[in-house]
Please model this.
Amino acid sequence: MSNRKYKFYIRKSHRYLGVFIGIQFLFWTLGGLYFSWTDIDQIHGDDFKKEKAKIDFKKEFISPKAVIAEIENAKNLW
Model:
């Protein structure tokens, strides 16, 4: 190939590469603007997190012996 064809292909590839990288920079800038203007809790997804169930310590606990006895009674009914 002649020197002239190399220059033609280099110019053409440089032009398309510039457009491709320019579009990426545009999307990168728009994404950065969106994340800087949006509430950080919304970006983290805090509004989708479920609140953990709180344990009520005022309730009485059941003895393991009582549970075993109840299971044995249920077995005797069968």
Q: What stands out?
A: The chain has one domain: 3-77. The chain has a mean pLDDT of 84.
